[in-house]
Design goal:
By secondary structure, this protein is mainly α. Helix content is 81%, strand content 0%. It is built from six helices and no strands. The longest helix is centred in the C-terminal third of the chain and has 27 residues. The chain is globular.
Length: 91
């Protein structure tokens, strides 16, 4: 099944899939993919607070260094997201 097919399957909402994907990519330490999927999670309605909680919760299961790196990535993505949102609002 291609990734598009996985994301369009019935059974889980896009929001739920984003939760799972952010968690998996954090624990697997896939920083490039995590960056992309944090942006997608925001688009799918996951809040910054929820993303932060997902990543911090995983410190126990994936290791503290992995979680810290995930938070650094999330902070960068949040800043980029806010910048784009502000630019849109000004336009």
């Amino acid at each position: 099944v291609l990734p598009e097919g996985v994301w369009s399957r019935e059974g889980l909402s896009q929001r739920d899939r984003s939760f799972i994907t952010v968690a998996a990519l954090t624990v697997l330490y896939r920083p490039n993919e995590l960056r992309l999927h944090i942006g997608r999670a925001l688009h799918n309605g996951v809040t910054k607070e929820e993303i932060s909680e997902i990543i911090m919760h995983l410190a126990i299961y994936g290791g503290f260094p992995t979680s810290v790196e995930g938070m650094h990535i999330a902070t960068e993505v949040f800043a980029e997201h806010d910048k784009k949102k502000e630019a849109k609002e000004k336009a």
